[in-house]
Structure formats: C-alpha cells, structure tokens
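Could someone model PRP with this protein?
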Amino acid sequence: MMSLPESSSRPYEECGVFGVWGVPDAAALTALGLHALQHRGQESAGIVSFDGNAFHQHKGLGLVGEVFADGDVMSALPGHVAIGHNRYATAGGTHVRNVQPLYADYAFGGLAVAHNGNLTNAKTLRQALVRRGCIFHSAMDTEVFVHLIAISLYNTVIDRLMDAAKQVKGAYSLITLTPDDGMIGLRDPLGVRPLVLGRMPGYEEDNGGWVLASETCALDIIDAEYVRDVEPGEIVVINADGVKSLKPFGDKGRRFCVFEYIYFARPDSILEGKSVYDARTQIGRELARESAIDADVIVPVPDSGVPSALGYAAESGIPFELGIIRNHYVGRTFIEPTDQIRNLGVRMKHSANRSVLEGRRVVLVDDSIVRGTTSRKIVDMVRAAGAKEVHMRITSPPTKHSCFYGIDTPEESKLLAAQHSLEDMRKAIGVDTLAFVSFDGLYQALGYSDRNDGGRNYCDACFSGEYPITLVDKMGKLVQ
Ligand SMILES: O=P(O)(O)OC[C@H]1O[C@H](OP(=O)(O)OP(=O)(O)O)[C@H](O)[C@@H]1O
Ligand SMILES: NC(=O)CC[C@H](N)C(=O)O
Ligand code: SF4
Ligand SMILES: [Mg+2]
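Reply:
Sure, complex below.
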C-alpha cells in the first residue's frame, strides 16, 4: 500500500473576529462571542476594549477559556466597546507577538485591528514599508494594514482605512476600533471571508448594541439579532450616529469561500443568507444522487461529516448510524506528540462502534480529504471492526491546491489529490469505492443550476486552482 504523509495537526484552520459597540461589559460579551467562534482558531485569543479614554488589552496563546480563565482579566478590560480575535496563523508563527487584535498608537491616537483572512501581497508591501522606515512588531500580514493606515496622508481614519484597503490584495474581514470613529467593519471587495452585523435588543435608545462577527453563531450566544451580512467591499462605521455604510470599491462581484459551507463554519450559522447546515445536507443529497451505491449503513466521519451524511442517508434511503464515535476532549492544546503517539492520533479522536459496523456494507461520508491521514485511519478502524465493504463519499471536489486567502491548508506537495489519481487515492485510503461531489453538483446543492450559473459565485480555488485574487507574493511580482 502507498504510504501517506502524516500530520500532527488539523489540516484546516482560520480565524474568528468579533466586536460589540455600545453595551456595558463589552469585553465579557466579546469573550462569549469568541467562545462561539472557537472552531475558527485555537492557537491564540485576544480582546481590546476602549472605555472612552484609554484602550485596554489582554491576549494570550491558547483557547478562549484558557486565555480568559482568570476572572480578574475581565475587570481589567472596561468599556462599552470591545473587539476580539481567535487565531490560527496564515502568516507569522505561533508567538505571543503574533496574537491579535493588533494594537498601535499613531497620529490619530490608538488603533486596534482584528483580521480574518490572508493578504496575498503582504510580503511585497512589507518590504516596501520597511524600506520606508516602518518597524514591524509582528510577523503577521495584518500588521501591513496598521502601517498603511499610519503613514497615509488622508485626514480621517476612514479615508486612511480606504487608502490602505486599496493597496492590499487578498481576503480580509476586518474589525477595527478607534477612539473617535468607533468600531469599523470591512470586507474585501469579493467578500471571500464572512462578516455579519447583528444587534442586541434593549440598547436602541442610545444607538448601541451593535455587533460584528465572523458567523451568526456568535450573535446567538449573546442573544443578538442578525441584521445582515456586511457586503463584499463594504465598510460599516458604527458609532453614536448609528451604522454608516461605505462602498469604496463599487461592485466587483462576490466570491464567498465555498469551503465555509463545506467544512469551516459552524453548522448552526447562517452565512450569506444560507444555513450552513442546510448547505451541508443538500451537498450530501447531491452526492447520493451522483454516486449511489448499494450499502447497509451511512456513517459520518465526525464532526464535520455529520450533516452531509444525514443528507446522503435521507436521499439514498439507507439508514444513518453513528459508526464512529468522536472523543470531544481532544483539542489542539495536546502536547506535540512523539511518532508513536502521533500514529495513534486519529484513534485518540475517533473510535469505531463495532455494533454498527460488523458484517455491514458501510458508506463513510466526510467533507474533504487533505493529506489522507484521517480517511486512511478511519477506514482501517472500520475494517478492523468487521465491516464487509467500505465506501468513501466526499462532499467536496478533490483538494488539489492550497488556500492563500485565510485557511491554512498544507502546501500542494502534501495534498493527496494533488499527487494521486482517483484510483491511486482509493488504493491509498484502502476503500472499495471512492467518489467526490462534482463541481456542478456542489453548486446545485447551493442553489445554482451549475458552476457558471450567474457568473462564478464562490471562490473554489483549492479545488479548481482558479484563484480569484492575484497571488502577488507567490508570483514574485512587486507592487510599485
Ligand atoms: O485528510 P486529512 O489531512 O486527514 O484531513 C481531512 C479531515 O480533516 C478535517 O476534519 P478535522 O478532524 O480537522 O475536524 P472536524 O472534527 O471538525 O471534522 C476534515 O473534516 C477531514 O475529516
Ligand atoms: N487565519 C486567519 O484568518 C489569520 C489572519 C492573519 N492572516 C494572521 O496570520 O493572523
Ligand atoms: S481557496 Fe478554498 S478555502 Fe481558500 S478561500 Fe477559496 S474556497 Fe475557501
Ligand atoms: Mg473532519
């Protein structure tokens, strides 16, 4: 059997951003919001609050519950406005200096920035900024924004932010906090990463209660109501005057990350008007139509495979069973494992439920195959539990390319589908049959007639290799 690359960490990570304006205990609400967004980044967490006079911050490596475990921390974050961030790095390693939100003092006072996404020309811009004398304090692409705002010659924060946004390329959902202009939300011109606007009831009189968050699940946890998604390329300025919307880029179309629906977002979130859960079950249904197989039981690979396996089971009429049980106490704080322990890694997270699998023809449903580590071990486990046949169904097209827009996928040489044909992948994973959803099937499940219906509506570059935003740094181009 072909050997597969091993991995000690999750294949995909991102970041979560959250901000709340005009409420008492803004920092405590932000901690709750970050908790709901924990799935988007488990490396570090931070909150910056503003009390009308001064900024306060607390940041650290680890999960939200760990970083904010000490009750005294919250009382050191006073103010009616706060922004927060959960991080998994796309640029700059896991060091305290790379924890967001970033905070800086500049000509207009303080500025805090929380960023989800990844800039594709950050290295090029950074080189130019360093040549001009800027001193960087972190290795993050996000810091480029801070410097571009600081050196801009425009007279207002908003104009400077627009000036900066026009120079950067890439994906960004950004929340900034300023003393005079309040909380500002900004989404890149194609809206690759999500950002929603919500409101907590009861603060209307003072024009307060406004919330910005990566996903609606972070609104639900604080009883805020969903107002709308921030539009691609839109800037929302939130202060005592209410919410002002600016659209400096005009309409450039939209390319929301399709992978947010497939895997990344929490299933109870509603993004771009579509329920993530519904999207996943529909993709599962589509996959069942495209690659039906005679079998006894449909088994999800938990967690992310569950809604799509429910869809597959409903469409195929084959019973859905929990043939793999997930241990919920395996997190990323796990100490870097030795080789021996790493080989047991998937068994620590998943175990086979023999009573469901023994003597059965099993269809495993998962959302993606990246390095193939999970699938290979799950298949071994299912066979060892006595399954008669094992079929694998995947609710994305094969992942053949890396993401440069904020999801930390491995480089192409580590992606199983980039290196192997479908038949070689099937053999490597050890299944009887293997099928991925088609591009058109994926788009149909999301409500379009095919991939090209109404122009291209999503970014699907990690599957297609068609990158909607220029990869400036990767191509070695220099920005003048
Ligand atoms: O081919 P691989 O490199 O093993 O990666 C693919 C697996 O990783 C992801 O799950 P993950 O375990 O990260 O998280 P989940 O519990 O949210 O599904 C994804 O859902 C696949 O199951
Ligand atoms: N995954 C992300 O969205 C990361 C945001 C930012 N690029 C960082 O490296 O911190
Ligand atoms: S490359 Fe893939 S993961 Fe990255 S933004 Fe595009 S669809 Fe999402
Ligand atoms: Mg998974």
